[in-house]
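Async update (no meeting this week)

Hi team, since we skipped the sync, here's where things stand on the single-chain job. The sequence we agreed to prioritize is pasted below, unchanged from the tracker. I ran it this morning and attached the output directly underneath so nobody has to dig for it. Comments welcome in thread, and please keep replies under the output.
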Amino acid sequence: MSASTINEKKIILVIEPIGMGGELLLKAIRSLGLHTVIATTEKVYHSMLLNFKELMDDTIFVDFSVREKAIETLINESRKKGVSGVVVSWEFLTDIAAEVAHGLNLCGPDATLSKARRNKHFMYRILADAHCPLPHLQAVITNKDDINQLHLEDLTFPLVVKPAENAASFGVSVINTIEDLPQAYTDASQWSHEFPHDIPFSNEILIQEYIPGQEFSVEGISISGKYFPWGVTMKFTTQGKARAETGHIFPAPISDVLRDDILAVAGKAVIALGITNGISHTEIKLDHNGKPRIIESCSRPAGDYIPRLVEISTDENPLAIYAKHAVGNLHADFTPAHAKRYSAVQFIRPETEGIFKSLKLPSKLDHANIIESRVTAQLGSHVKPGSTNMERLGWAILVSNSEQSILHAMDELSKTTKVDIE
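Output:
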């Protein structure tokens, strides 16, 4: 690419495009013709990003584990390169992305609340002050001895035990008795640093009320303090002690009344957390009365191919809108596109432990079209059932014109998929 071509394009800083959302974000940015500068580490670049080289124009290598130094480096290098927008896909770096955008005087969420969007204890306090409906926080402990100091009569089971700063269901348990709490604490506290950047985690472990109802998320974008959602995603998870996500439907097949209630609650949380500009992903569950409660909200795109579902359903790519907004190319009268059809992603998980031999997804379904699929586990690898979003063998994306058809199709896919594990 010539220097003259680069100078004609706006330059966007993409902070660590790894994970499921990273590939989608890079492709969306490339479709806009923007010049990409990738912020990553040398190790991550050579181990995780080489397959996306054609989507990357320039790189900045930075040590994210030293937060303030990383922010300073990214601000200085971005100024030299003429960066005009900052985006992020990796949840653990949303705080750094906000600080860098602020330091460059570019579009982004409120940097003063950047840590509240990463630490769930801090987040809880901000959302509680804004009177958002939340699970009751029953305790916060920082070591196993704290369990002995709890007022057991104040604990109401079942409970959720989870780390304040991890993600992707790592270390999250649903427990029913006090006897389960020591192991739940051990599970929640086993990761002291993020992978692959070695960012240190808070040692806080949250003990919260368990919200029993259906889980949803809301995908939206904020522009100058106004919140614009694309809609509500219905989420499916494993059952039992740990909950890992198994699939999603967009838009959620729910009543208009419930949809509007969920959107209103999500918007209140997003604004309370200072996501005044940029994309957001807000997770919600329904309580015993069918009312939405906020689980968490963050200034990042959704993972698990949810942005792809939004694009399929609405014909509008939310990641492209995110990038356009970041570099100042979004029209002031923007309104998110409405859903025209239903889409879903279903993740295939191992049900037994052994050596992964094959995964055969059906080529067609009676109730929906399969438009994309992928085997993600390595053939010959050792696999086993687990409690996180990492124990996946593959996935398929479906599209249909009715809510009943998309629900039937997910059941049909489960029944007709063949997995061989020896």
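Quick observations from my side:
The first strand starts at residue 11 and ends at 15.
The two ends are 49 Å apart (CA to CA).
Reply here if anything looks off.
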